[in-house]
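INFO  loader      accepted 1 record
INFO  loader      residues=149
INFO  predictor   begin
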Amino acid sequence: MKKKQSKKKTQNKRKKNSSEKIAFSNLENTSNTISTSKRSSSGIPKYVADRMARRIFFTAGIPTILGMSVFVVSYIIVTRNIAEIPPSSTIAISALFFLLGLAGLSFGILSASWDKEPGSFFGVENIPMNIKRAKAAFKPATQNFEENV
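INFO  predictor   done
INFO  writer      dumping tokens
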């Protein structure tokens, strides 16, 4: 059997619950105002980030998927006795695909045009300019570090 609670305890619980709701709503309101003021930054524009993501998907995603599928295809070939594949060649082929994916990741980031309109299909002409931008982004940090030492 349940014990009956006194009216005081239930009233205190109601007050406590309502005060918690008010506190959490105030917390949400203050966090929204803080986050909106921090959104204006000098990061990568959305259209450039979308362009980079598309290039990365094709130049890094496809080789990475192929690198993982090498294991599956190798397993199927060996278990059905189609051919005898040494494990070292399976690992070497998948490693080549993963390295190709890593190179594609760098290419996808560096070849994206920062203009509003998209550049050429491959974007090779944008690579030197984007390397200069990356170096310039890290230059102030290294200058401050050298001055403090």
